[in-house]
């Protein structure tokens, strides 16, 4: 758990809830180890094209229109055609877009925010009350272009959402203050509505308007206690997805939500929302309740969507997929995929162009299932009875091993960072570990790969860049920039700059000039 705030365990059990009255799919227990024979090879260059004839009789190919929620072939691509940028955790609906180059070659710190002092706030979790500074897991900044400006937006431990000028680091509008620290990544509306979506440890998921002059205005908030039996705590770490006026989000209250936003504008031209929760479901089932005695079922990751399926994991290790194909016509989502990793799965599910899932799981319960399955896993959801394509273990070192960071995919390599400080390059097809490095301290920030450069921070304050232009060789170090405090947040690259926060209390813009 990421600094979780537990509440008293509830004895309530779920039997007969209609929303989870879906047949439990048999767990895929057979692990195909590295070097396995995969019958569904990844093809990052595959496309679904159909022939058409021109007036002159020549044959060309055109991309067939996609009839669904998210085209799997968009994996790795920018999310929005209306708002250029990184607008949510890991950039898009498949959690696989890390920014746009060029990447700095000899960078320095260009500006910090705030210029004086630190972003700090007091917060309470299971360990008591303490002061938190800077930004942490996941903390992936939004960087986007709007109305001739490039804006950097993020939430921090000073309870606030910030919107800064890309060039100078000055506030574009005043910070929006929530009631507690913000651990996750905000989402910027991908359809151009002046809206920011942010969770907080204050129990609420907030929708904030940014078109009211210098002051942001909250238009709506969803309580973690609203109409549900809460099972764990009331934080919102996940970064929402906004698609076709629907918002998809999981909460640490152990529930998954779909909200119809009903966005629009009033007579004065100001943005409006009229959200309606159209679907919610517990993220556990009876089998998981019986198996995991601590009943920690929270969703700390950011849900992913590929095709017509929403994917996410929970803190009991249940990775699941929900079919939303009929949602717009009033249909009820149904669970179509169930896989148990055995342990806390807070890293977001990543989906590639062929629909394969890449999972990062922690190793803290040390049970038989997680020991057998491993912590770095590739799944084929079209084979629900036996979905494991390959797996790699990370079970040594600290008492809590495994994966906190969300993996990255680039050029046939899957990049994983571990709690113990290992960074691995794994062959996307076979699961072979091609190379690995040890950074010497925890790596919770997710790997970022842009233009042949891998960027990864460590807990000693080093933001490191490695040359992965030849991804199958041990990548040499290109540069390191020293920041103040552990780098738990995930960096964003945008047009010559890298943006990231650190636990020392400040947020950084890093570039050549």
From TrEMBL:
Residues 35-62 have a biased composition (Low complexity). Residues 388-467 form the Pyrrolo-quinoline quinone repeat domain. Residues 35-69 are annotated as: Disordered. Pfam families: PQQ_2. SUPFAM superfamilies: Quinoprotein alcohol dehydrogenase-like (SSF50998), TolB, C-terminal domain (SSF50960). The chain crosses the membrane at residues 12-32. InterPro entries: PQQ_b-propeller_rpt, PQQ_rpt_dom, Quinoprotein_ADH-like_sf, WD40/YVTN_repeat-like_dom_sf. Keywords: Membrane, Transmembrane, Transmembrane helix. This is Unannotated protein. It comes from freshwater metagenome.
């Amino acid at each position: 758990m990421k600094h979780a705030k537990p509440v008293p365990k509830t004895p309530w059990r779920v039997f007969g809830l209609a929303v989870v009255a879906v047949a439990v799919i048999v767990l895929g227990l057979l692990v195909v180890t590295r070097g396995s024979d995969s019958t569904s090879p990844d093809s990052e260059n595959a496309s679904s094209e159909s022939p058409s004839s021109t007036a002159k009789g020549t044959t060309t190919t055109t991309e067939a229109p996609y009839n669904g929620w998210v085209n799997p072939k968009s994996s790795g691509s920018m999310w929005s055609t209306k708002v250029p940028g990184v607008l949510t955790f890991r950039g898009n609906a498949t959690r696989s877009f890390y920014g746009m180059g060029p990447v700095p070659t000899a960078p320095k710190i260009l500006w910090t925010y705030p210029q004086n002092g630190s972003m700090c706030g007091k917060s309470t979790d299971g360990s008591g009350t303490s002061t938190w500074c800077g930004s942490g897991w996941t903390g992936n900044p939004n960087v986007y272009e709007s109305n001739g400006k490039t804006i950097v937006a993020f939430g921090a431990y000073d309870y606030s959402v910030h919107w800064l000028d890309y060039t100078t680091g000055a506030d574009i509008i005043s910070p929006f203050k929530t009631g507690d620290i913000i651990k996750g990544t905000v989402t910027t509306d991908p359809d151009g509505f002046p809206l920011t979506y942010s969770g907080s440890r204050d129990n609420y998921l907030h929708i904030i308007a940014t078109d009211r002059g210098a002051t942001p205005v909250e238009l709506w908030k969803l309580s973690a206690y609203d109409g549900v039996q809460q099972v764990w705590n009331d934080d919102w770490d996940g970064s929402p997805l906004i698609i076709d006026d629907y918002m998809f989000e999981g909460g640490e209250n152990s529930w998954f939500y779909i909200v119809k936003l009903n966005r629009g504008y009033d007579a004065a031209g100001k943005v409006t929302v009229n959200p309606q929760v159209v679907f919610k479901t517990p993220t556990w089932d009876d089998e998981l309740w019986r198996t995991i005695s601590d009943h920690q079922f929270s969703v700390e990751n950011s849900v992913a969507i590929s095709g017509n399926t929403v994917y996410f994991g929970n803190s009991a290790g249940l990775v699941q997929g929900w079919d939303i194909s009929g949602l717009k016509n009033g249909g009820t989502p149904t669970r179509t995929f169930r896989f148990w990793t055995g342990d806390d799965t807070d890293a977001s599910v990543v989906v590639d162009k062929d629909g394969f899932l890449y999972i990062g799981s922690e190793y803290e319960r040390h049970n038989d299932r997680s020991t057998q399955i491993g912590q770095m896993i590739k799944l084929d959801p079209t084979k629900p009875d036996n979905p494991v394509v390959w797996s790699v273990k990370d079970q040594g070192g600290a008492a809590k091993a495994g994966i906190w960071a969300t993996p990255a995919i680039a050029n046939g390599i899957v990049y994983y960072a571990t709690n113990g400080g290992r960074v691995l390059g794994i062959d996307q097809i076979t699961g072979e570990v091609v190379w690995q490095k040890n950074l010497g301290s925890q790596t919770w920030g997710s790997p970022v790969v842009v233009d042949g450069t891998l960027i990864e921070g460590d807990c000693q304050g080093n933001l490191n860049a490695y040359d992965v232009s030849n991804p199958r060789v041990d990548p040499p170090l290109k540069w390191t920039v020293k920041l103040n405090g552990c780098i738990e947040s995930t960096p964003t690259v945008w047009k010559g700059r890298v943006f990231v926060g650190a636990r020392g209390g400040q947020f950084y813009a890093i570039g050549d000039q």
